[in-house]
Write a structure and sequence with these properties.
The chain has one helix at 2-18, and strands at residues 23-30, 35-36, 41-45, 53-62, 70-78, 84-92, 109-120, 127-133, 146-147, 150-159. By secondary structure, it is mainly beta. The protein has one domain: Jelly Rolls (Sandwich), CATH 2.60.120.
């Protein structure tokens, strides 16, 4: 009986994953013991279509150990031929009452955060996105050396719906 339940669960998960046709790239990287400020998380987007428009999202999972209501990120998108695009981003992570904005039924919440809309990868080759956190306590100049409560950081690239 237990084997049948596990088999059914595997089939349902496989169907759910295979139905996601809009996603061209979807990858998470796990963080254990805290996200260190000087250790960016990197994703390589291999040979994207140069005529298709894409929407890019930063995805992440956090627990109740995350102490802030917002998140500051520094992103660097490296193009195949040497150009770089650097941006500083701020995302709300919680309501004013402290309840998380992400989705999930247990202690882990998942957030899908807009990064770039309508992107066309005009250069052929691989693109690399590096993501670092820049979170700090109010009044502190230095960022938190180790950010606790973020368990995974991801990148999702979808075909633009425009």
């Amino acid at each position: 009986m237990a084997i049948r339940k596990i088999g059914t669960l595997i089939v349902l998960v496989a169907c759910f994953i295979s139905c996601d046709q809009d996603s061209m790239f979807d990858q998470y990287k796990s963080i254990s013991g805290g996200w260190k400020i000087n250790e960016p998380i990197k994703f390589v987007i291999e040979q994207p279509d140069t005529i298709q428009d894409y929407d890019l999202f930063i995805t992440l999972r956090n627990t109740n150990d995350y102490q802030y209501n917002n998140l500051f990120l520094i992103t660097t998108l490296d193009f195949p031929h040497g150009k770089k695009f650097v941006d500083t981003l701020e995302y709300a992570m919680a309501e004013p009452d402290g309840s998380w904005l992400g989705r999930g039924f247990n202690d882990i919440k998942e957030s899908k955060l807009w990064y770039r809309e309508g992107v066309r990868f005009r250069e052929s080759g691989n693109y690399t996105l590096s993501i670092s956190h820049a979170v700090r306590k109010n009044g502190n100049i230095q960022g938190d050396q180790k950010l606790v409560g973020i368990t995974e950081v991801g990148l999702r690239v979808e075909q633009s719906q425009k």
